[in-house]
Amino acid sequence: MTRPLVEILRDLNKRVPDKIIDPDTNTVHWYHANRMLSFYAPGWCGEVRDVIYSENGTVTVVYRVILKGTDGEAYRDATGTAQVHEGRREDAVAAAEEEAFCKACARFGFGLYLYHQDDIHHDDHFH
After folding, report:
1. Which position has the higher pLDDT, 117 or 88?
2. What mean pLDDT is predicted for residues 82-103?
3. Domains of the chain, each with CATH number or no CATH
4. Do 107 and 126 meet the contact criterion of CB atoms below 8 Å apart?
5. Region for residue 110 given its phi and psi (left: phi exceeds 0; alpha: psi -120 to 50; beta: otherwise)
6. CA dist., res. 106 & res. 114, Å (int)
7. Alpha-carbon torsion 108, 31, 78, 120, what sign?
8. Mean pLDDT, rounded, of the chain
9. Among residues 37, 89, 116, 119, which is most buried (max CB within 10 A)?
10. How buried is 96 (Cβ within 10 angstroms: 0-12 exposed, 13-18 middle, 19+ buried)?
11. What phi, psi does 69 have (nearest 5°)?
12. What digits encode the pLDDT tens for the residues 20-46?
C-alpha cells in the first residue's frame, strides 16, 4: 500500500477540502489531519519527542510525524504550546500535542497555506 514519497508529498500539498476547515479558527482539527495522513500516507507514524513544562505555567510538546514511502522515510518536527489551567496538566499536554501534530503535518505541506507563515517557520528545522 505504500507509495513513493514524492507522490505522498504532492497529495498532502493539495488544497484542503473546505468542509474540514474550522471556520472559527481557519485551521484543520487534528482528527481530520490524522484521517488525511492515513489516506495519503498509509503507514505514517508519529511520536512525542519531548514535553517541556515552563515556569510561566505553559507546557510545550515536541512532536514528530514520520512518512514512510516505498523509497524511504521523511520526518518533520514541530512544537505546540498550551496553558496549564487549574493544575490540569493532562489537558494542556493533549492540547499542545494536537497543535504540534497539526504543525508537523503542515511542514509536509498539509494545509500549510492556512497558517500565518511566521507561526510555522519561526522555529523551523527541516530534515
Report:
1. 88
2. 93
3. 5-118 (3.30.390.80)
4. yes
5. beta
6. 9
7. positive
8. 89
9. 37
10. buried
11. -110, 175
12. 999 888 889 999 999 999 999 999 999
Q: Collapse the DSSP code of 114 into the 3-class scheme (helix H, G, I; strand E, B; otherwise coil) and give the result.
A: helix
The CA distance from 97 to 59, in Å, is: 10
Dig out the grid coordinates for 7 from the structure. Answer: 507522490
pLDDT tens digits, one per residue of 46-70:
999 999 999 999 999 999 999 999 9
pLDDT category at 116 given cuts 50, 70, 90 is low
β-bridge pairing 58-69 and 72-83: antiparallel
Full 3-state SS string of 5-68: HHHHHHHHCCCCCHHHEECCCCEECHHHHHHHHHHHCCCCEEEEEEEEECCCCEEEEEEEEEEE
